[in-house]
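User: Reviewer 2 asked us to show a designed sequence for the structure in our supplementary figure. I'm pasting the structure tokens here. Could you produce the per-position amino acids so we can include them in the response letter?
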């Protein structure tokens, strides 16, 4: 992991982005913003799932008029997503929004952009300047467009990245001329390789915080890999100060995956149990996949980041479960449960789920009372040795 890149810091309604602040998770509501109750309910679900900041679309005046009520009820800061109509940005600022998302390319008159910047400056509101791959090719001048398209046809990714950077530089000149630096940048594409190259290039040119995202990823089943491949690469390189994973699905999926990505890279502490499970192989003697799914459901009720391992055998399982707080190693009809390296129980297959859950609950309770500490990687699970000892005996008496 490369250390986080140093950037300026902006304050979005109390959530800091950039500098030494942790990488924040964002998502966006899929409701009509003017439907206040539905929008607030979705914002609450997202916040409950671990979302730090939520964006709402404000295409009409009806939407910006809903903002005061939404802001009053929201447990997290809110961003107004503005396209084309600069008046929506001014109204959102007037209503106390915490941040504006703006694509200056969608606002034809430079003076209108200047007015939005002035309004945001007056209230200390940051602006995200977003460039999307789909909107960087020249639309008005046919000759310029033809030249750009020829260049893109010859070398699509490099040319698109170059165009995105040039567009961003053009936008940033407007902000520099206004001496406005409370800015977060984004450069989104549907292509993971363009996302990686564009953010790498932008991070060399600007010391502003980066909002990472891959756009139009599709449903989680297909969009997850593209999103994690691109955002994970950048985060591992120290690039990225806030992330949004975007799916064509309930936005709570976005938050779940964003949190898991950040936790996996050590960029966010876990607050819920972590489940490790073996992939199963020809040594398996129980229905481990079913057990893992059931354990996962049960663990959702525990709010302590206990590390739990569910392993299909005692051959490789113990080594791979090292560091787990609570682990079960299953064998034919039976399982051995370990709590922080100590063997505590041997249970039948029918008892595995409840017994493991009980041990997890009890362990979490002891953690909460300060009686024990969460694992860290120091916990050693000494496996029942499956190999015969020198005297010929096999110490695997629990699994027959
Ligand atoms: S833990 Fe055992 S059953 Fe699971 S994949 Fe490894 S060797 Fe196979």
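Assistant: Here is a per-position design you can include in the supplement:
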């Amino acid at each position: 992991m490369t250390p986080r890149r140093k950037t300026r810091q902006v304050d979005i309604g109390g959530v800091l982005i950039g500098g030494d602040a942790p990488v924040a998770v964002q998502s966006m509501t899929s409701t009509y913003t003017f439907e206040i109750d539905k929008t607030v309910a979705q914002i609450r679900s997202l916040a409950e799932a671990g979302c730090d900041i939520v964006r709402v679309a404000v295409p009409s005046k009806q939407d910006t008029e809903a903002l005061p009520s939404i802001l009053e009820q929201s447990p997290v800061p809110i961003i107004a997503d503005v396209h084309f109509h600069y008046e929506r940005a001014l109204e959102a600022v007037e209503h106390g929004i915490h941040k504006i998302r703006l694509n200056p390319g969608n606002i034809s008159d430079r003076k209108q952009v200047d007015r939005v910047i002035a309004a945001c400056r007056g209230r200390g509101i940051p602006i995200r300047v977003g460039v999307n791959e789909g909107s960087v090719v020249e639309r008005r001048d046919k000759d310029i467009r033809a030249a750009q398209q020829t260049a893109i046809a010859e070398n699509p990714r490099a040319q698109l990245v170059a165009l995105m950077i040039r567009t961003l530089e053009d936008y940033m000149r407007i902000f520099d001329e206004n001496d406005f630096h409370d800015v977060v940048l984004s450069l989104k594409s549907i292509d993971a390789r363009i996302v990686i190259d564009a953010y790498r290039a932008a991070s060399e040119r600007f010391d502003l915080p980066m909002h990472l995202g891959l756009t139009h990823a599709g449903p989680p089943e297909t969009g997850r890999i593209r999103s994690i491949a691109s955002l994970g690469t950048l985060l591992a390189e120290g690039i990225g100060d806030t992330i949004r994973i975007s799916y064509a699905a309930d936005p709570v999926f976005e938050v779940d995956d964003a949190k898991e990505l950040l936790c996996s890279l050590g960029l966010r502490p876990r607050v819920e149990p972590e489940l490790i499970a073996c992939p199963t192989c020809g040594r398996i003697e129980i229905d481990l996949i079913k057990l893992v799914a059931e354990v996962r459901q049960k663990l959702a009720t525990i709010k302590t980041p206990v590390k739990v391992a569910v392993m299909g055998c005692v051959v490789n399982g113990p080594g791979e479960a090292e560091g787990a707080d609570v682990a079960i190693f299953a064998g034919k009809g039976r399982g051995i449960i370990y709590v922080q390296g100590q063997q505590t129980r041997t249970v039948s297959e029918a008892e595995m789920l409840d017994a493991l859950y009980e041990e997890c609950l009890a362990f979490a309770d002891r953690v909460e009372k300060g009686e024990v500490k969460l694992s860290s990687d120091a916990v050693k699970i000494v496996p029942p040795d499956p190999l015969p000892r020198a005297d010929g005996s096999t110490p695997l008496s629990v699994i027959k």
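For the response letter, you might also mention the following. Confidence is low (pLDDT under 50) at residues 394-400. Residues 278-281, 283-284, 311-313, 315-317 surround iron/sulfur cluster (CB under 6 Å).
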